[in-house]
Design brief:
5 helices; 132 residues; globular; 42% helix; TATA-Binding Protein; alpha+beta
Length: 132
């Protein structure tokens, strides 16, 4: 697993379709469901008639943790759900799974009292990625 400024990612020796299934399975083990899914490749083809690598944005949500966050600050819904991307990797037969760092995501609130939620979400996301 490697870190980027606003998240962390892992390159897998799996085709993107298999990586997508695997990340969903691991997220589910950590209590996350997928609320939204954007097929970027299909959208760019439909709207702009351009070809793009297979690329999906998944909006993952852990209901109990989301409830805690929303109870703390109603407008925090602007920062939900947690984004996870799955895309075709740089080498044939590889894929990349990347997660937006919840500490960065919730850090924009400037509220230290919800830092524990960001830590919990980050730990769960890291475990899901590590299991891939």
């Amino acid at each position: 697993m490697s870190e980027i400024t606003y998240g962390f990612k892992k390159t897998l020796s799996l085709p993107v379709e298999e990586a997508d299934k695997a990340v969903r399975k691991e997220l589910k083990k950590e209590g996350f469901g997928i609320l939204t899914e954007i097929d970027v490749r299909a959208t760019l083809k439909e709207k702009l008639d351009v070809d793009f690598r297979p690329y999906k944005i998944l909006g993952a949500c852990n209901p109990p943790l989301a409830h805690q966050a929303l109870t703390s600050e109603t407008d925090i819904g602007l920062l939900l759900p947690c984004n996870v991307v799955v895309y075709e990797g740089p080498e044939e037969g590889t894929s990349v799974v990347a997660v937006l760092d919840p500490k960065v995501q919730l850090g924009v609130t400037g509220r230290d009292d919800i830092d524990h939620l960001a830590e919990e979400v980050r730990a769960r996301m890291e475990r899901a990625l590590a299991a891939l």
